[in-house]
């Protein structure tokens, strides 16, 4: 597989690795989206339950952010080491990342379990939606270690070029979740508790699959007990590169907190439920972009480590064109038929009515986010930790967060000002990222 990363034609190689990864990302979305689809249709309490799930999502994002911190950082470093023909060092990255994931999961479970109700109220829960949010997150936190290991270690499978195995990891869990959700929610009458239980059982199965593969015969890099012992330099190297995707996820948590509270302040619980749908739709666009980028990362990282910059340039150009084309096409469809997407999550006519134009506005700026994704993820693959971290902060922390606080007060726009903050920050961030990549990459790839 390593030789193929260096010799196989770029277009065929990138698509061979990226398509299964994109499919895996789309299937992975089903974990949360299917939960919301089923929960949003629970008789009499569907909208309140959906709002409750929306309030828990910042915590779920923070859990996955720590998985990205250890997983994405370690996997990217491992890919470059493999390109430099140093598999021994690559295995150290795998082992130390595994230990970090276990430590993170224990820490997060304990912290959130003891503070969940307080945090959920700060994240936008009301007295009406708190019981549903608390029920869901209590069960979800029990399975944090499965979520961390499944998400974080699967990146090492992808970066070795085993994209089909990586896809299988996600598909196994997602399909199981789809089957278990209606059984626990409706047949056993467990409501949101059933949705959470279905999710952690599914993640546990995915986790076992990943660990079995990375300790088996097919993998190039193996999890070895001696490499689980923390190495200061290895850990710092992992964290320095993983901090960029961590910030992207963690700031998403901050943004959802801000939007949930804003919608409760300027609107009501129905608007909080609407944000749950809008963030799901945003993920539906963003995750395939992430998937294609992650599929291209092994090609870019390996060939950069092998000093094959001609192949790095070809891989990036393909990644950029495909990503930008996808984001443009996907957002165009949403802008034309927003109701078709809203009815996937709710049959509440009032929620659909207030969601039609708000969906158009909120997602408009994502039309050029393919450029943002391609450039930022390539910076990550090239080991440019500082630039990647800055770009991760630019979109959410520097732009979106202050705009979400300021715009609602301008001309009393309220909810509409809050929604406008998203496309404005998306357009500015994507433009700045593309310009920065153009100039920086010319020096990196000479």
């Amino acid at each position: 597989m390593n030789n193929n990363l260096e010799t196989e034609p770029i277009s065929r190689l990138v698509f061979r690795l990226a398509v299964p990864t994109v499919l895996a990302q789309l299937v992975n979305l089903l974990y949360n989206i299917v939960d919301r689809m089923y929960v949003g249709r629970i008789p009499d309490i569907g909208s309140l339950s959906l709002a409750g799930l929306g309030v828990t999502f910042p915590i779920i994002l923070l859990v996955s952010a720590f998985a990205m911190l250890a997983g994405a950082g370690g996997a990217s470093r491992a890919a470059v080491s493999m390109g430099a023909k140093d598999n021994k060092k690559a295995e150290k990255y795998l082992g130390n990342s595994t230990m970090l994931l276990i430590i993170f999961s224990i820490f997060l479970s304990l912290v959130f379990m003891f503070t969940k109700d307080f945090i959920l109220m700060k994240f936008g829960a009301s007295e009406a939606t708190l019981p549903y949010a608390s029920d869901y997150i209590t069960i979800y936190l029990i399975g944090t270690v499965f979520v961390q290991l499944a998400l974080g270690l699967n990146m090492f499978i992808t970066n070795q070029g085993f994209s089909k195995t990586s896809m299988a990891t996600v598909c196994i869990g997602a399909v199981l979740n789809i089957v278990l959700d209606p059984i626990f929610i409706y047949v056993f009458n467990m409501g949101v508790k059933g949705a959470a239980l279905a999710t952690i059982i599914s993640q546990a199965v995915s986790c076992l699959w990943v660990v079995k593969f990375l300790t088996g015969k097919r993998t190039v890099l193996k999890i070895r007990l001696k490499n689980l012992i923390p190495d200061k330099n290895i850990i710092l190297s992992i964290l320095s590169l993983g901090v960029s995707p961590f910030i992207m996820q963690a700031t998403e948590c901050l943004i959802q907190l801000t939007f949930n509270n804003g919608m409760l302040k300027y609107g009501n619980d129905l608007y909080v439920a609407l944000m749950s749908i809008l963030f799901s739709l945003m993920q539906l666009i963003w995750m395939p972009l992430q998937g294609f980028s992650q599929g291209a990362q092994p090609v870019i990282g390996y060939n950069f480590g092998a000093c094959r910059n001609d192949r790095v340039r070809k891989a990036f150009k393909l990644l950029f064109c495909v990503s930008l084309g996808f984001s443009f096409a996907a957002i165009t469809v949403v802008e034309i038929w927003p109701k078709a997407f809203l009815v996937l999550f709710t049959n509440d006519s009032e929620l659909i009515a207030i969601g039609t134009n708000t969906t158009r506005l909120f997602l408009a700026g994502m039309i050029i986010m393919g450029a943002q994704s391609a450039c930022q993820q390539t910076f990550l693959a090239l080991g440019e930790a500082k630039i990647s971290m800055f770009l991760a902060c630019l979109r959410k922390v520097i732009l979106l967060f202050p705009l979400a606080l300021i715009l609602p007060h301008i001309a009393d726009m309220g909810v509409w000002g809050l929604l406008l903050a998203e496309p404005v920050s998306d357009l500015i961030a994507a433009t700045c990222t593309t310009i920065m990549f153009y100039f920086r990459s010319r020096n990196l790839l000479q």
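DSSP finds 16 helices and no strands in the chain. The two ends are 26 Å apart (CA to CA).
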